[in-house]
Amino acid sequence: MKTKLTSSKGFTLVEIMIVIVIISLLASMALPAFNKLRQTTQDQKVLNNAKQLAVAADLYYLEHGVSTVSIDKIVGPTANMKTLEIIANETYPKVFTQGTPITITGIAGSRTITFTP
Questions:
Q1: CB-side exposure of 50: number of CA atoms within 13 Å?
Q2: In the prediction, which pLDDT does 117 show?
């Protein structure tokens, strides 16, 4: 009597479904961490913009002997700060006053950052 051995190559549907479920679970755990990292990075970039605006405003105050300046005087091709990169649709104040904190609103539609120079 001959015994016939058969070998099955490939994966069964159940095995493929299990792998898909495991990958989905891992992805669902990783996405919140990536979102938090993106948010932190955006906040750091916006804070850096606020620091640069504060320095540019301080230079303008010293050069012109004033205590208030509009953003168009400190940001531009011939100003102290050449460009202001918008990171996450945030809104910067239009006027800066010496000694007043800079509040940036609407970061990614909901967050606010205040920088005290």
A1: 23
A2: 84
- As beta bridge partners, residue 22 has none
Q: How many Å apart are CA 110 and CA 117, to the nearest integer?
A: 23
Domain ranges of the chain: 13-115
With H, G, I as helix, E, B as strand and everything else as coil, classify residue 99: coil
Residue 29, strand partner residues: none
Total-model pTM: 0.75
Identify the pLDDT of residue 7. Answer: 59
Closest listed residue to residue 90, CA positions, set 49, 55, 40: 49
Relative to beta strand 102-107, strand 111-115 is antiparallel
Question: Which stretches within the chain are classed as H helix?
Answer: 13-64, 71-74
Q: pLDDT tens digits, residue range 3-50?
A: 666 656 788 999 999 999 999 999 999 899 899 999 999 999 999 999
CB 44 within 8 A of CB 85: no
Q: In terms of DSSP bridges, do strands 95-97 and 102-107 run parallel, antiparallel, or are they unpaired?
A: unpaired
